[in-house]
Amino acid sequence: MRVMEFSDRASVRSHLLKIEDKKKRNEEEATMLLEVLNSPGPNGSPPIGLQGGLVDEQGFPRGDVDVYKIRTQRNRLACLRTDRKELEKEITELLHVLHGMKDDTPPQGGGEVNGFKEESVQSNVVETAVDMGTQSLVYDLVPLALVNQVFDSSPAQEAGLMENDRILQFGSVKYSAGSTLERPKLADFAAETSAHFGQPIQVVVLRGTNRISLSLTPKQWQGTGALGCHLMPL
């Protein structure tokens, strides 16, 4: 892929924000498709996921699922993954272009560039560079638990955990879409908490359509438990 030529850093930053917006919309659609594919089927049957079979033991299309719809969703998800990789590659190349250019002199009166505050633009660029290394790792993770209560002054609140967050990863506890392994239970969260008492645990949550990485340290506090939050299995 060839990155277009730019005359100044402002134009590079503006284009970066456009590409980042495309990537965000790509991930929102992919998240929606993953949630559909990983939702229980009719009558509470197991989710079809990304790898669930679409034919019965005799080799005929299954009658309990919409085979055409599932294939369409899986194909669309595959296309989104390919597009996302291209967008991430373009972002990386644009960052190299940006860092290789001399800094612009900010316009007077607030340091705004193309309608964006300089600080905000730089923040987005830095977050893009950092997040790209981790987003692909959590891209296919399935929400395992819902945070339905966070207590004041608790370790969970200090870490930034919020009600209605959906937990994708809790330390080593995670589950990829289409995995043939047993889905983790809340008991696995408790075991991870006990094993890392007083030590930070990486927690990745889905807040709306945004993936957010937090550091939660289980510890003794004025309330009960080591986390100070209530989780509900999904």
From TrEMBL:
<protein>
    <recommendedName>
        <fullName>Nas2 N-terminal domain-containing protein</fullName>
    </recommendedName>
</protein>
<feature type="domain" description="Nas2 N-terminal">
    <location>
        <begin position="18"/>
        <end position="99"/>
    </location>
</feature>
<feature type="coiled-coil region">
    <location>
        <begin position="70"/>
        <end position="104"/>
    </location>
</feature>
<dbReference type="GO" id="GO:0005634">
    <property type="term" value="C:nucleus"/>
</dbReference>
<keyword id="KW-0175">Coiled coil</keyword>
<dbReference type="InterPro" id="IPR036034">
    <property type="entry name" value="PDZ_sf"/>
</dbReference>
<dbReference type="Pfam" id="PF18265">
    <property type="entry name" value="Nas2_N"/>
</dbReference>
<dbReference type="GO" id="GO:0005737">
    <property type="term" value="C:cytoplasm"/>
</dbReference>
<dbReference type="InterPro" id="IPR035269">
    <property type="entry name" value="PSMD9"/>
</dbReference>
<dbReference type="InterPro" id="IPR040815">
    <property type="entry name" value="Nas2_N"/>
</dbReference>
<keyword id="KW-0143">Chaperone</keyword>
<dbReference type="GO" id="GO:0070682">
    <property type="term" value="P:proteasome regulatory particle assembly"/>
</dbReference>
